[in-house]
Amino acid sequence: MIVITGASGKLGSLVVDRLLERVPADQVGVSVRDPERADGLAARGVRVRRGDFAEPSSLTAAFEGATQVLLVSVNAIGPEKVAQHIGAVDAAYAAGAKRVLYTSHQGAGAASLFSPMVDHAATEEYLSALGTPFTSLRNGYYADTIPALFGQAIETGELVAPADGPVSWTAHADLAEAAARTLVDGLFDGPTPPLTAPDVYDLEQVAALLSELSGRPVRRVVVDDEEWRAGMVARGVPEDRATLLLGTFLASRRGEFAATDPALEELLGRPATALREFLGHRLAGGLGGRG
Ligand SMILES: NC(=O)c1ccc[n+]([C@@H]2O[C@H](COP(=O)([O-])OP(=O)(O)OC[C@H]3O[C@@H](n4cnc5c(N)ncnc54)[C@H](OP(=O)(O)O)[C@@H]3O)[C@@H](O)[C@H]2O)c1
Questions:
Q1: What residues have CB less than 8 Å from 135, skipping those under 6 apart?
Q2: 72 C-alpha vs ligand 1 centroid, how far in Å?
Q3: How many domains does the chain have?
Q4: Rounded to the nearest whole angstrom, what is the distance from the C-alpha of residue 118 to the centroid of ligand 1?
Q5: To the nearest whole number, what is the mean pLDDT of the chain?
Q6: CA torsion sign, 175 to 179 to 184 to 189?
Q7: Which residue has the CA at smallest separation from atom 15 of ligand 1?
Q8: Does residue 130's CB lie within 6 angstroms of at least one atom of ligand 1?
Q9: What is the per-residue pLDDT across 170-202, written as a single tens digit (0 to 9) for each?
């Protein structure tokens, strides 16, 4: 049985959908914090069990009988997040899994200026030191971040952010399909190549795309790092979150998310979703929608 965690989240739910196109439902299990939110999967014949990384004992039953476990990284940060991932890795192997897969990031690195990348590197290091089979899916930077962070630029006419750098924005849908294929075909040992769309865009180019697609002018406005951070805090964003978010610009400025690689398209056997197509689709459904 293949067990997927985070299956009520955006990426995990898409991975399960793609998996169910390839393997019978009785060979798929999900580990979710709230099984009621996975009622639809249970109705499709998927085994639904409660599992919370913050409560490692819950993972024994959630991972029971798993041959592979895909650990979707949790949306927390810092040492607590790494400890949860380590606990989940241990639980997966203890349950008898032959391989653990983990959703890492193309920019994973101990010296990254964006702290989630440091957390990913720490989890990868733990996996690697165990000496057991694992796959670390080095996912591209979610294209979904653009609507989430800059969607309002179309209304205001200004995309306001600190100086940035090129990013290979990648769609959840493509990453989910790649994860499902990797699980089914047993691909990759250790960290994968960067799983990214083929093109990079900085925020100047993103603003131009938003202008073109919406028919409304969007001007890229570069603000000082500290001014931006203070503005976020003034708008009610907690201080540590604002500092964390600033890190993404510092890291992109240093080129940490600029890598591209054909591996994703080779896995998919088709072109990856282009950013223009992704944003056009999101604009048609409203930038707040899921993509
Ligand atoms: N590649 C990138 O650019 C990028 C960008 C942002 C984030 N990420 C990482 O990718 C992950 C998946 O992305 P996403 O878009 O699917 O995010 P998401 O929709 O927020 O999903 C996160 C999932 O993590 C689960 N989770 C949180 N805490 C947990 C815990 N203690 N035990 C078990 N599961 C827990 C959540 O469970 P519930 O459904 O129960 O809440 C949810 O299903 C994120 O969590 C983050 O680590 C990557």
A1: 99, 100, 101, 102, 182, 187, 188, 189, 190, 192
A2: 6
A3: 1
A4: 16
A5: 96
A6: positive
A7: 10
A8: no
A9: 999 999 999 999 999 999 999 999 999 999 999
CATH code, domain with 183: 3.40.50.720
Residue nearest to atom 19 of ligand 1 (CA): 9
Residue 285: pLDDT band (50, 70, 90) is confident
Contact 141 CB / ligand 1 (< 6 Å): yes
The 3-state DSSP class for residue 253 equals: helix
Confidence of residue 223 (pLDDT cuts 50, 70, 90): very high
The whole domain housing 33 covers 2-139+172-191
pLDDT digits (tens, 9 = 90+) for 80-112: 999 999 999 999 999 999 999 999 999 999 999
Choosing from 10, 39, 59, 75 the residue with most ligand 1 atoms within 8 A of its CB, the one to mutate for a pocket test is 75
The verdict on residue 200 lying in a domain is no
Residue 30: inside a domain, yes or no? yes
Q: How confident is the model at residue 288 (pLDDT cuts 50, 70, 90)?
A: low
Q: Is the CB of 33 under 6 A from ligand 1?
A: yes
Task: Tell me whether residue 125 is in a domain.
Answer: yes
Q: Where does the pLDDT of residue 290 fall: very low under 50, low under 70, confident under 90, or very high at 90 and above?
A: very low
SS (H, E, C) 185-240: HCCCCEECCCECCCCCECHHHHHHHHHHHHCCCCEEEECCHHHHHHHHHHCCCCHH
Across the range 37-53, mean pLDDT stands at: 97
